[in-house]
Specification:
Blueprint lengths: L2 E6 L5 H11 L6 E7 L5 E7 L2 H10 L6 E7 L14 E3 L3 E9 L2 H10 L11 H13 L3 H9 L4 E9 L5 E7 L4 E4 L4 E4 L11 E4 L5 E5 L2 E5 L5 E2 L3 E3 L15 H7 L1 H9 L3 E2 L2 E2 L8 H7 L2 E6 L1 H17 L3 E6 H4 L10 E7 L5 H11 L5 E6 L5 H5 L2 E4 L12 H18 L6 H22 L2 H8 L7 E6 L3 H16 L2 E6 L16 E6 L5 H12 L4 E7 L10 E6 L7 H19 L18
Parallel strand pairs: 18-19, 18-20, 20-21, 21-22, 23-24, 23-25, 25-26, 26-27
Antiparallel strand pairs: 1-4, 1-10, 2-3, 2-4, 5-6, 6-7, 7-8, 8-12, 9-10, 9-11, 11-15, 12-13, 13-14, 16-17
Bound molecules: 5-amino-5-deoxy-1-O-phosphono-D-mannitol.
5-amino-5-deoxy-1-O-phosphono-D-mannitol binds next to helix 9 and helix 16.
């Protein structure tokens, strides 16, 4: 992971780099640094253990100034979070470099460089790259050639920003396996891991492609493709505004994002349904023809997006009568799998940059899938660019590391997909009209549910001193329970597990006692009575129950049972609605525990490493 920013300009670039880092902090936040070529052509550097705010403070105390610079916010892979492992890394005061990705062959390069007399100052995989560039410069003093020479020796994934004190008005950028964009200013250029970092300074971007190397000066930009041929890449004008990172008065981004779900869902439906019908062309020009041939669906994703896939698989089989299999991307990418005839490959990713999901997509493109479809929240991401069909969830930027509005909008997108595929498999026009109207009712339903926030906050007090929690659900609500458990562990650091309620007696019931809070999701469906029996098993072992139940489900509160009643909703839509109180529960538990909610320890928003 990690976020990188760089700039070549007439003006002092340090404020641009610091602001860019703040906007990239979702990618990693255990340490940060920046390096600038000053007016005497000396590389000056500041690095801190901690977040970008600490870097800002250090910088306020002893500011750096110069027209060429690079900066980095880190999520540690090789070497613990520390000042010496923080980027930029510098070789012999000449070359400074920032890196996002992993150099897989760093051990062998390190041995070679040690024999050549290099002393290593960090435990990172990155230092071999900056040393390699320095070595190559001794043979050919042109920084671009030195970078070309060095990257031929690298295995792995890397986005790089490189500056050289002997050529101070030049920045070299490399993209291979990790994202990198170039921002175009007037007489100035920038690089960053995403457009969001650069929105305060430009709306015009070039997305580098795999293997591209960019030679950037204030007044010129030359891009070389993976074969070192000069190439042109299109300029894209972003419609995002610079202030999307505002918390809008909420205490945390996560809370803002939970409360923005009604709007996010409405946005994701806008222009995607018309006269109670799904607009299939929103999945791509070819979608209608592809969907009419689909006989099976394979969904691949990670984390929360994987949970969305699990819910969608239930819908796909039940509504569209299409076999659907869901798999975790990090498993799928290394497994031999059999592709059945006319199977559509679907990958789901909020960021569109998750390394495992991207690798899974690349694998799928080599296999006989009928087509590939990405469900994604970031228009300019790698996954959207690599997929044949794309459906963008219009959730707006999600900043909190815990995914909330991205998840509920993914579910909306997946439901539209189920209807679209189902049209050829038994979903009648009347069914479709009902489904679409139910989807359109969701923003209002979520709004009503959000009014229960105080009850959920009160419920959260029961969890704050606990070390473990169990989440139970059945059918489509098992993945909802899984998502609730993931949210709780991710932001409150309470160990939480989700189980199919019917599995309780096959092992986890042994864990249940008065110290084990058990959360259950209980809509009023055909599995309700079965679920109630499972909950009896918990009560009989003194387990305390927290039940999110349909108001007609006849689940009543008692000393050992806390119930939040939810008004009745159409069964297929219920997984979307029931997710919301679980998000709020995790949020309020984390608030009580004083956790770093938007940036939980050890995590990052965009997981661009394997
Ligand atoms: O960007 P993606 O949807 O591909 O990310 C996948 C997971 O890393 C992500 O959903 C993660 O599980 C969330 N932070 C959980 O809240």
């Amino acid at each position: 992971m990690c976020g990188i920013v760089g700039a070549v300009a007439q003006r002092d670039v340090s404020p641009i780099l610091l602001e860019g880092l703040k906007r990239l902090e979702y990618r990693g936040y255990d340490s940060a640094g920046l390096a600038i070529v000053d007016n005497e052509n000396v590389i000056q550097r500041i690095r801190v253990l901690g977040k970008v705010n600490q870097l800002q403070q250090e910088h306020d105390n002893s500011p750096l100034s110069g027209g060429t610079g690079i900066a980095h916010t880190r999520w540690a892979t090789h070497g613990k979070p520390s000042v010496s492992n923080a980027h930029p890394h510098i070789c012999r005061e000449k070359i400074a470099l920032v890196h996002n990705g992993i150099i897989e062959n760093h051990e062998s390069l390190r041995q070679q460089q040690k024999q050549a007399g290099f002393e290593f100052k960090s435990e990172t995989d990155t230092e071999v790259v900056v040393n390699g560039i320095y070595q190559a410069l001794q043979i050919n003093p042109d920084i671009l050639e030195a970078v070309f020479e060095t990257i031929t020796r690298l295995e792995g994934a890397y986005a790089l920003g490189v500056i050289n004190s002997d050529d101070p008005k030049r920045l070299i950028a490399v993209r291979k396996g990790s994202p990198l964009v170039i921002g175009i200013g007037i007489g100035e250029y920038f690089i960053a891991s995403d457009v969001f970092a650069l929105l305060p300074v430009t709306q015009r971007f070039i997305f580098l492609e795999e293997g591209d190397v960019a030679d950037i000066r204030r007044d010129s930009l030359v891009i070389y493709d993976k074969n070192r041929k000069v190439t042109e890449r299109p300029i894209n004008v972003s419609e995002l505004s610079a202030d999307v990172a505002d918390k809008a008065g909420y205490r945390h981004y996560m809370l803002k994002e939970i409360f923005s779900q009604p709007d996010a869902i409405a946005e994701s439906l806008k222009n995607r349904v018309d006269e109670d019908q799904v607009v299939i062309s929103e999945f791509g020009q070819n979608a209608e023809s592809v969907f009419s041939q689909v006989k099976a669906v394979k969904i691949v994703a990670c984390g929360t997006s994987y949970h969305a896939g699990l819910i969608a698989a239930g819908w796909m089989e039940e509504i569209a009568n299409i076999s659907c299999h869901v798999e975790i991307a990090s498993e799928f990418r290394y497994r031999k799998s059999v592709v059945t005839e006319s199977t559509l490959f679907v990958c789901i990713s909020q960021s569109g940059e998750t390394a495992d999901t991207l690798a899974a997509l690349q694998k799928a493109k080599q296999e006989p899938y009928i087509s590939t479809l990405a469900i994604c929240n970031v228009a300019e991401s790698t996954i959207t660019r690599e997929s044949e069909l794309v459906f963008l969830t219009h959730a707006g930027p999600e900043i909190g590391v815990a995914s909330t509005k991205a998840f509920t909008t993914q579910l909306v997108a997946l439901f539209l997909l189920v209807i679209a595929i189902g049209r050829n498999n038994g979903v009648s026009k009347e069914d479709e009209n009902i489904f679409v109207r139910q989807l359109e009712s969701l923003p209002g339903r979520v709004n009503q549910l959000l009014l229960h926030k105080d009850e959920i906050e009160a419920m959260a007090k029961n969890f704050a001193d606990k070390h473990h929690a169990l989440f139970l659900g059945r059918g489509s609500f098992l993945p909802v329970a899984m998502e609730g458990a993931l949210k709780l562990k991710e932001i409150s650091y309470i160990h939480a597990e989700a189980y199919a309620a019917g599995e309780l007696k096959h092992g986890p019931l042994a864990l249940v006692d008065k110290d084990m809070p058990v959360v259950a999701v209980a809509p009023n469906n055909h599995l309700l009575e079965k679920l109630k029996s499972n909950l009896q098993e918990v009560q009989a072992r003194e387990g305390k129950l927290f039940i999110f139940a349909d108001k007609n489900s006849e689940v009543e509160a008692s000393d050992s049972v806390v119930v939040l009643k939810i008004s009745t909703i159409y069964d297929f839509m219920a997984p979307i609605l029931y997710t919301v109180p679980l998000q709020l529960l995790a949020y309020y538990v984390a608030v009580i525990k004083g956790a770093d909610i938007d940036q939980p320890r050890n995590l990052a928003k965009s997981v661009t490493v394997e």
